[in-house]
Amino acid sequence: MVNIMKHPLKISALVLALAGVVAAGADAKANWEKYCKGCHGVEGKGDTKLGQKFECRDYSDAKVQATLTDEKMFKSIKDGLTKGGEVQMKPYSDKLTDQEIKDLVAFIRKLKK
After folding, report:
1. What is the CATH class of 9-109?
2. How far apart are CA 108 and CA 44, in angstroms?
3. Residue 98 in 3-state DSSP?
4. Distance CA 59, CA 89 (A)
5. pTM, full prediction
6. CA-to-CA distance for 73 and 75, rounded, in angstroms?
7. Contacts 24+ apart (CB under 8 A), 105-110
8. What ranges do the domains of the chain cover?
9. Do 43 and 60 form a contact (C-beta atoms < 8 A)?
10. pLDDT tens track for 57-95
């Protein structure tokens, strides 16, 4: 049996890493609520008035998520989306860091039912 008290630096590093993961998840949820839920809804179904107007996809649907790569979602959030010259989603590169966008993509993946 390994005595964990003999490895305080390893334990500290692990605790800090886990805290970072939890904080990133909390930040992603806060960013979703601040920037995304108005159109995509709380559960990512796109069932809001704006979501229906802009034909938002249902991110809780596994089939919808299977059509999207993380890279495509990242680019859509960062650079925005247009359809027929009309802005469907504005870019968030001025509001979110690349890491926050990556965390948001991971959050969206967790919406899948």
Report:
1. mainly alpha
2. 7
3. helix
4. 15
5. 0.75
6. 5
7. 105/70, 105/73, 105/74, 105/77, 106/24, 106/25, 106/28, 107/25, 107/28, 107/29, 107/31, 107/32, 108/32, 108/44, 108/59, 108/65, 108/73, 109/65, 109/70
8. 9-109
9. yes
10. 999 999 999 999 999 999 999 999 998 888 999 999 999
Sign of the C-alpha dihedral computed for residues 64, 80, 105 and 110 taken in this order: negative
**Residue type at position 62:** A
Q: 3-class DSSP state for residue 110?
A: coil
- Token pair, residue 82, equals 């247009």
> Which position has the token pair 């469907």?
88
What is d(CA 15, CA 11) in angstroms, rounded to the nearest whole number?
Answer: 6
10 CB burial (10 A radius; 0-12, 13-18, 19+): exposed
* Token pair of 2 as six digits: 């390994």
Q: What letter represents residue 17's amino acid?
A: A
